[in-house]
Amino acid sequence: MPDAQTLAAVRRRAALAGTAVSVLLILAIVLGSRLLRDFDSALLPYAVATVFLAFGVAYRYTVWISAPGARRLFKQGWRSFFSAENFRSAPTALPKMIATYLGFQKFLGARSPARWAAHQLIFWGCILAALITFPLTWGWFTFTSGTGSGPGYEMRIWGIKVLGFDSLNFVGWLMFHGLDVAAVLVIPGASYFLWRRMKDRGAVTGQRFAYDLVPLIALIVIAVTGLLLTFSSIFLHGGGYEFLAILHMVSVVFTLIYIPFGKFFHIVQRPAAVGMQLFKYTSRRQDEQVLACRRCHEPIDTAPYVENLQGTMRDLDLGFDEWAEYCPRCKRVLRGNAYLTHVKKGFK
To answer: Which residues pair with 292 in a beta bridge?
Structure first.
């Protein structure tokens, strides 16, 4: 375990990184909104929450990569990610892995088609919501009407007109209801995982309320209150809108601040894992020596990957890095034999 002095140094670096990223985001908000001319003061709580989000992500990421195992994963993953040699030898590998591993997350389909579908609904719903909410919150996007009341509107990015549209046609409806579409995607996905957390015995056994249930509840609350805002404005002539707006704002701000310190942090970690997958893929394409299991002699993985895993185990002082040279089945067999030999031998 690292000593107190090392932990204090890591925290100082993390705090500096978080502060630097927060300051850069504030400058981007000021400059991107044309010195706050396009900044909507009603969205100030959301903007402040994104600054806290930036600080938390940078702080947590710095602490994460300070651990020996994560640091090795980080270095090797990003080295493969930005390798010109990898790009020359396999130019389509990186885009393919970004699409399949980050975008469509095919590895989840092997566990359960239902879990994969629910995760896809949450993922794309949150991506759509982020692409709309963050630029609007920061004042980077603006929608203006030459007549003051439509139906013709202009979408501007950093003050530059990029699109003109009629708010009464389908494109205009999508422009003003993109967050409603995102909410419709998120609600069934988050509801499935919440139902599974309550019914699946395996999920119930290891779950924690703050870590596993709160994120799902927060997503559902954000999506439902967002849809209710639209329902209030269209069908209730604004009835209850102020209360719903405050409830929605509180739920969004809480979730943004919670992201770096809860389960949602894996969103930030995932790109490093893509780099590691690229490292494995390119090692196999380069005809690297494939190590065989020391017990059954079946192939395990390429020598660079196994050596990287052994290095991580040595960094962590685990003391059994030779186990990386056994296949998963033989590891289970050896553990079982050790248990029968050293534990069960005294029982009749």
So the answer is: 299
